[in-house]
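Why should sequence recovery work at all? Because a backbone constrains its sequence more than one might expect. Tight turns favour small or flexible residues, buried strands favour hydrophobic ones, and helices have their own preferences. The token representation captures these environments compactly. In the example below, the structure is given first.
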């Protein structure tokens, strides 16, 4: 958690996850994932896309309006 927290002080950190409804909230609530200001948060069940397919990564990129070389 400390590593992610330290990184978040200098970089925007996002999450792309293949999960089912409610699971992201549960891992934050139980402190499995630190409660940081992740942007974007892209959860497969919410967007109808999944890893490893390119579309979920492109969606995350669009949400932060960043060129691929900055990700």
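From this structural description, the recovered sequence reads:
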């Amino acid at each position: 958690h400390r590593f992610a927290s330290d990184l978040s002080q200098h970089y925007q950190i996002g999450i792309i996850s293949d999960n089912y409804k409610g699971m992201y909230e549960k891992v934050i609530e139980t402190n499995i994932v630190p409660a940081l200001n992740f942007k974007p948060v892209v959860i497969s069940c919410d967007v109808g896309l999944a890893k490893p397919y390119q579309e979920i990564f492109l969606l995350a990129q669009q949400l932060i309006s960043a060129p691929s070389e900055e990700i």
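A few observations help interpret the result. The longest helix spans residues 54-64.
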